[in-house]
Amino acid sequence: MSAFLTYLLNGLAVGCAIALIASGLVVIHRVTGVVNFAQGTFAVVAGLCASSLLGLGLPHGASELAAVLAAAVAGLLTGLAAVGRPGTTPLSSLIVTLGVGVLAYAVEIVLWGDQPRSAPGLAGSVTVAGARIQTQHLLVIAVTAVAFAALALFFGRTYLGKALTACASNPYAARVVGIDVRRMGLLAFALGGLLGGLAGVLVTPMRPISFDSDVTLIVNGFAAAVFGALTRPVITLAGALLLGVAETMAAGYGYGSHQLEIALGLMLVVMIVQAGRRPAISQEPT
Amino acid sequence: MTPAPVVEVTDLVVAYGAATALDRVTLSVAEGEMVALLGPNGAGKSTLANALAGLLRPASGTVTVRGRLALIPEGRQLFPDLSVADNLALGGWRSGVRDPSAVYDVLPRLAELADRRAGVLSGGEQQMVAFGRALMSRPDVLVVDELSLGLAPNVTAGLARHLAELNRARGLAVLLIEQNARLAFELCRRAYVLESGRLVTEGESAALAGDPRVAGAYLGGAIT
Amino acid sequence: MMLGRVAVPLAAAVTLALPAVLDDSALAVYVLLGLAAMVTVGVSLLMGYAGQVSLGQGAFYGVGAYTAALLALNGLPPLLGLLAAPVAAAAFALVVGLPLLRLRGHHLAFATLAMQLILLSLAGQLDFTGGDIGLQAIPPFSAWSFEAGGVTAYAYLTWAGLALVMLVTRNVIASRPGRALRALATSETAAASSGIPVGRYKLAVLALSAAFAGLAGGIYCFYTGYVAPGSFPVLISIQYIVMAVVGGLGTIWGAVVGAAAITLLVQGLDRLANLPGMPSYAPGVLSYAVYALVLIAVVLFLPNGLVPAIRRLLSRERPAKTR
Ligand SMILES: Nc1ncnc2c1ncn2[C@@H]1O[C@H](COP(=O)(O)OP(=O)(O)OP(=O)(O)O)[C@@H](O)[C@H]1O
Ligand SMILES: [Mg+2]
Description:
Order of helices and strands of chain B: EEEHEEHHHHEHEHEEHH
Structural class of chain B: alpha/beta
Distance between the termini of chain A: 46 Å
Strand content of chain A: under 5%
Number of helices of chain A: 11
Helix content of chain A: over 70%
Strand order of the largest sheet of chain A: 1-2
Bound molecules: adenosine-5'-triphosphate, magnesium ion
Number of strands of chain A: 2
Largest interface: A-C, 43 and 44 residues
Low-confidence stretches of chain A: 280-286
Radius of gyration of chain B: 17 Å
CATH superfamily of the domain at 1-67 and 141-148 and 170-224 in chain B: P-loop containing nucleotide triphosphate hydrolases
Mean pLDDT of chain A: 88
Helix content of chain B: 25-40%
Radius of gyration of chain A: 19 Å
Largest sheet of chain B: 6 strands, mixed
Number of strands of chain B: 9
Shape of chain A: globular
Largest sheet of chain A: 2 strands, antiparallel
CATH class of the domain at 1-67 and 141-148 and 170-224 in chain B: Alpha Beta
Oligomer: heterotrimer
């Protein structure tokens, strides 16, 4: 029983990290219509940055903050390439973000080498109802909760957040009232970079990260975002938690080698079921 | 004495790829003036409206706007997922006005609808939101693309009254794009007629209404 | 048109003559280039005609390679293995394509990527595929009394395979269904409403592109003598997209030119990176950077690809003589 509880809590922590990646995907997709393949890259950049800065002796907090900001800058640069040129179609933009992800490999290997790196997180563990849970996992869950609450406030209550939603809702109308849709797209990419970076600095202490960790991260994040049809953050969060728990349970009960298949299989099933429900005609401009 | 123009368009050419939608169009709207723009479907009226709003880049010619221009686009074009209040607030993006209460004074019905999602409103209510959203930018000139489109006559008449009132009380200049020529001639002293991207006639509404060709094509005098 | 009538036989003759004069290391590049071109023709057909992005083309390549390797290792004639490779890849594409092709755009891109990841993970765990180590000691290719002894033989085999792939593609494009496919790439809705069986055509193109990849995989396994999950990384699928996009989507020659340009560029940089004094990570870094920068630059600045751009340049230079 306590093993189950441990797996559940660990799974929630893993799910939270996936949720942060996925939320970045959702923010970018809502505003620009682009699926950002480089979303996992932002997490890798932040994780590697944090491990370097901590290694240089910078204190906790400052290191992570700087790493997350670096990821936001990476997001902005990705946005410039993907949506900076007027007339780029969403599918072209997807291919560009794919290119950005590969370009990041080159930069990351030069800066950090090709071996996995780790970073110290919060040490120690606490016992909850007989289940041991690492403090770092609790931190991940807490930060994710705060991040999602902040996102909800930002999009639901602030003027800038509403302007971003307006771009998603009707880009032509956004231009009519004078909103610079391209600038808002760049802002969304920077925000996506920030969220991905947050995931990266939280994950690196749990499992070491290397330049090519982005594929697993983006695939898991996309799988979660697919639950919410790439537009709905709350369902995305639920999907991410489900994925995290399912994967951790699988690993805990001896199917560890099939973790990835479980996530991917789940994603495929959800996508195909969703596609079956939508009329084919309405999906043309993806 | 002619008042200074708020909108001045000279030799405007706009093209979509290889197709020319506007061909050397020249027109102007004076301060506080209400001007109508008539024309059949596909004449290029909406293209002109978008060019005036700076949403389309001219291939050649110039568009000069003195003061702030607001557009009520064809088909309302609201933000369907946002509330009426949020739609209005975003209308103030350029002016920095966030508080819609001044618009509620003009269009009190909007205050009652404030918390509804714009996407679920009726056509008339949506047009009123689009109207209010345009007013939020504190415009000096308002371009209305098809005020009456798809609306019941009494709803159109209500909106037209508001428009005339704003023009009289605040000196708001208006360029009214309309299929309903009767309404346009009633509201506006002057009118232009656009066909296949070119201005074919312009003049005083009264004179145009008397022109047999215009009357035939736009006042239902003859079937063409 | 006139240009094509001269250039095509010329290109065929020159490439056919090349294996006789190239040294072994150049021949290795020749084989890799040809195999990549075979897969890329399929990718280009899929993207340019059916309007679908596949991030999992490497999976079909892998299915072909494993199929040929398993058959040959179980004592069947290598020729049979080579023939079975495209058939198995196409059959696999039909099975996965049935559900996957209900997806479009980025959904399909991720679904095909997921397919490849699942396949790689399974190949790395199952016993009959040899796990992570893969399958070794695959016998060389042979048919009747002929046995492929050296690289030169594989170069000719690759040439023949690519010629076949291009010929099939040319005929498919010129056929009536091929012209209907053109409509599909522009607007699926319009194509569907004009009575084109969109779903079946897309599936057929996917299967065909998989068959091309499978054939290339079959040749590859005999050529290298071993296959492992590591031979088919996700990056290889991205590489085919880069090649197709660079050459120009939906053009046969574009795929070949794209494959050639990227392969030669990467090989050239590889030489540079292996010069003494270069850091050990240089080869990887340079090839990643090249894939990425070329892909981004072409998508943004040359969206139709190299071959259509060159064609346009040529036809602009002599506008009068089109016939
Ligand atoms: N985005 C576009 N791309 C290409 N052509 C366009 C586009 N928008 C309009 N057109 C073409 O430009 C011409 C003028 O269109 P416009 O919408 O300006 O006409 P309109 O006078 O507003 O017509 P309506 O009364 O139907 O609203 C038409 O031939 C139309 O087909
Ligand atoms: Mg119009």
